[in-house]
Amino acid sequence: MSQSLTISRPDDWHLHLRDGAMLKAVLPETARHFGRAIIMPNLVPPVVTGSDAAAYRDRIMAALPDGMGFEPLMTLYLTEDTDADDLAAAHASGLIKAVKLYPAGATTNSASGVANFDKVRGVLEKMAEIGLPLCVHGEVTDSDIDIFDREAVFIDRVLDPIRKATPGLRVVMEHITTKNGVDYVLANAFDLGATITVQHLILDRNDMLVGGMRPHYYCLPILKRAEHREALLSAATSGDARFFLGTDSAPHPTHAKEAECCSAGCFTAPNALSILAQTFEKAGALDKLEGFTSHHGPAFYGLPVNSDTLTLTKSDSATQFPARIDAGDDTVTVFDPGFPVYWDVT
Ligand SMILES: NC(=O)N[C@@H](CC(=O)O)C(=O)O
Ligand SMILES: [Zn+2]
Ligand SMILES: [Zn+2]
Can you tell me which residues bind substrate (predicted)? Predict the structure, then answer.
């Protein structure tokens, strides 16, 4: 028996496209399904200025296959030297839709991030004034804080003080992974939103560690206990507009994932929507999928919902996703949810 669901075209509110051959390889995987995406600026070197963002947007558009529609929503990478006027001009021209805060050393390519939060106070005040959202990788980097606690500690020690010191600053907690993150969003007003990834909705740390380590499930923030996954699933399927999809699809060459010290990130662009449909259906919340993938994000960012649609169909046989895609001389391994998925984009 087949079943189908037509929704407004989804957007991805947290996406890594990289550059060069990798960009060319992964961009069609997103553009096939998503109308727009918030493009993460953690290139090497990072996308710091308005002119960096304009040049990166041009490279993305040049890599887009003919006939595919896709709008990259550009971001700047916040550093301790970010120029508030350059950032305001990039926002005023419509070039950028957000600024990304990486605590220095928290994740992939975050070395140029912020170590001393006092140094970005002026920039954050400017962002509050002009209504430019701050997207936050919310983990402390202190070596004495356990990796599984780094998100919760960040909320108390960094995020809450920043928000209190900067009234009116709109913040997106990127890729939340804990009940603490969900509760913090719920306890605040609608100037605070959160993106949630596919992997954090379906996996917990046991899936990554029991019976052998699975490097393709290693991403940051790291998968947590089952009770946290359950809180994320409740939030995503609740219909609360503060929670929306950010896949954090983060391609790395297969050899860098299957390495002695594996890179952090899951490449979910090809099958994110199929897995989500299955996950929402299992939770008895298929009617909440469209809000999560297509309505809540535009509402937070003050953008229109996409005018075209996407149809998902469920069939009796499991959907076959490619195991990997080619990217120049490398391959990128496609995320395997670990269970059969019967939904596919048609
Ligand atoms: N999520 C990840 O594990 N990796 C991301 C960086 C990030 O979003 O933190 C990447 O750029 O590879
Ligand atoms: Zn991150
Ligand atoms: Zn990311």
Answer: 16-18, 42, 137, 220, 252, 264
Q: Which residues does a 6 A CB cutoff place in the pocket of ligand 1? A: 16, 42, 107-109, 137, 219-220, 248, 250, 264-265
Binding region for Zn(2+): 14, 16, 100, 137, 175, 248
- Give the containing element (helix H, strand E) for 194: strand 192-196
Looking at 179-259, list the stretches that DSSP marks H as alpha helix, in order from N- to C-terminal side.
179-186, 198-202, 205-209, 226-236, 254-257
Is the bond into 103 cis (omega within 30 degrees of 0)?
no
Q: What is the pLDDT of residues 216-236, one digit of tens each?
A: 999 999 999 999 999 999 999
* Banded model confidence at residue 2, pLDDT cuts 50, 70, 90: confident
Nearest to 337 by CA among 249, 271, 293, 283: 271
Give 269-328 pLDDT, tens digit per residue.
999 999 999 999 999 999 999 999 999 999 999 999 999 999 999 999 999 999 999 999
Give the residue numbers marked as catalytic.
Answer: 248
Judge contact between 74 and 95, C-beta under 8 A. Answer: yes
ipTM metric: 0.99
Burial class (CB in 10 A: 0-12, 13-18, 19+), 241: middle
| Substitution site in 22, 78, 107 for ligand 1 pocket (most atoms within 8 Å of beta carbon) | 107
Domain ranges of the chain: 3-345
76 sits in which H/E element: strand 71-77
Rama region for 160: left / alpha / beta (φ>0; ψ in -120 to 50; rest): alpha
Compute the distance from residue 247 Cα to the ligand 1 centre, in Å: 11
Taking Cα atoms as reference points, which of 259, 256, 253, 233 lies closest to residue 245?
A: 233
User: Residue 42 CA: which ligand 1 atom is closest?
Assistant: 11
Close Cβ partners of 230 (under 8 Å, ≥ 6 residues apart):
none
Q: Which CATH number fits domain 3-345: 3.40.50.170, 3.30.1360.120, 3.20.14.10, 3.20.20.140?
A: 3.20.20.140
